[in-house]
Amino acid sequence: MSSSPGHAARHCQSALNTFHSLLYFSPDLDKELAGHGVGDPMACYIAGRAAALGRVGPGVVTAAFYGFRYELVARHLPAVWDLVSPREVWEARLAAADSTLHRTLGPDVLRSRPVEEAARLVLRAIGGAQRPGRPLYAAHADLPVPPAPHLALWYGATLLREHRGDSHVAVLRARGLDGLESLVSHCASEEGMPREIVMTKRGWTEEDWSAAEERLRERGVMAADGSLTRQGRELRADLEEETDRADAAPYLHLGQDGVAELTSLVEKLVGAAIGAGAIPEPLAAFFTPAER
Known about the structure:
67% helix
């Protein structure tokens, strides 16, 4: 790869993101944190993703997550840190990833050579990643690599997920889209999830959502019926391409053959996990590896 890896890297990152996200459809983290007195699933998600940042408050997390309503985050932070420390949350997150992967893929697969090779490749890609301007990636990159290959792979997938996420936030800010406008325009696109799922999970109200739609209409991004205009579709495509360029370094470091191999290995794992019911319908369709 002598230039931006573009769509090949995006396919690879998509597979890695799905592998990482298997944890979000599993009850295991909620069970791990229930023993510490954390009973709200949203508190578990926020604490789990923010744990690498340390004992931070709602302002920092809202800035880093970008698409979450401040009031939702403030409902859980910093209160959750009085029940369980960030280090304990990270350990619980790894334990939950371990049990989730064992249940969905089985111990024989997790001990297999393809998992070892995928872990090796993803860690090599991380060697090209960049910390400046990427708070969630940088915080996770400071954590030790788990020794078990399947957890090293999950950790590496987490790092590259946050590397792209931080890159995407920078692109959104540069193009003048706030966190909610980004969600609204993405949900209106062909790739977007249903708004009912996205809106409530991130704490937004119907009034918030409608106001963001109106702002997007004023910019010519959204039509009266809630679909994207041609300008809106071009904007979403531009956002992804700009994110590809901002996120290119790990995949350039890995090289074209390495990206192709890593994509193939992780997509097979993801396919097996989805086949085992790791992601419930109808959401599984949004994570199933696309035919190329």
